[in-house]
Amino acid sequence: MTQIAVTAGKTWPIRVGAEGIAAAQFARCGFDVLVQAGRDKPWYDLVVTRAGNLLKVSVKASEDGQWSLTQGYSRRASETPGTKFDRRAAIDRWCDSHGSRTVCCLVQFEAVAIHELPRIYLALPHEIAARMRDTADRLGICALFEQYTWAPENGSLRSETLPNSWLFSQTRIEELLQSTSGAYSYPMKPALMPREVALTA
Predict the structure, then answer these.
(1) Sequential DSSP letters for the chain
(2) Counting beta carbons within 10 angstroms of the beta carbon of residue 152, is it exposed (0 to 12), middle (13 to 18) or buried (19 or more)?
(3) Domains along the sequence of the chain with CATH
(4) Cβ contacts of residue 162 below 8 Å, gap of 6+?
(5) pLDDT (tens digit, 9 = 90+) per residue, 9-45?
(6) Percent of the chain whose pLDDT exceeds 90
(7) Which is nearest to 188 in space by CA: 22, 32, 19?
């Protein structure tokens, strides 16, 4: 009982910290960042916009190497009492719960020193859902892992990791803007620092 209370109490500060770090990183890329005041849109936490481009960002924090994204979307098959947990249905419900132009910002604090930034990934809900389905089939666990190993039948151990292409970068943001808007958006450049101007008589 005590362990549950400690874990639950620790989750909220980590989530708030992750949202702040995500907002700062988007701001560094030249975006205006808007934070919900009333949290009436549960499928996203931030809105980032620049030059007419807009993304809704759902920030998910973790400090144990995995994201339990389907909590709250779980259900059991109703045909027969006691049937196994329907993992794929939970994943589908989680994926379908996201609104348009929503991307997930996955923030991982595991093994990150206090003076370092956490590892940050950006992905569309359907991209994450596809990986979770594979993990559910292989491990029987309904979660997104940063990395894990598994053994196929009559095969050697294999290692799975999140794609490097998901790592937070201006290139990745540009890809997601294009895929969610369906239209071309101009390449982004970091905000220019003001230059010193030499005054002459």
Answers:
(1) -HHHHHHHHHHHHHHHHHHHHHHHHHHHTT-EEEE-SS---TT-SEEEEETTEEEEEEEEEESSSEE-TTTTS--B-SSSTTPPB-HHHHHHHHHHT--TTEEEEEEE-TT--TTSPPEEEEE-HHHHHHHHHHHHHHHS--SEESEEEE--TTS--EEEE--GGGBS-HHHHHHHHHHHHSS--PPP-PPPPPPP-----
(2) exposed
(3) 2-181 (3.40.1350)
(4) 106, 121, 131, 146, 147
(5) 458 889 999 999 999 999 999 999 999 887 778 889 9
(6) 67
(7) 32
What is the token pair recorded at 182? Answer: 């369906």
The confidence score (pLDDT) of residue 85 equals 66
What pTM, to 2 d.p., does this model score? Answer: 0.82
Asked if 22 contacts 46 with a C-beta cutoff of 8 angstroms, the reply is yes
Stronger pLDDT, 12 or 196, i.e. the higher one? 12
User: Of 62, 48, 43, 26, whose CA–CA distance to 146 is shortest?
Assistant: 62
Residue 105: CB atoms within 10 Å: 26
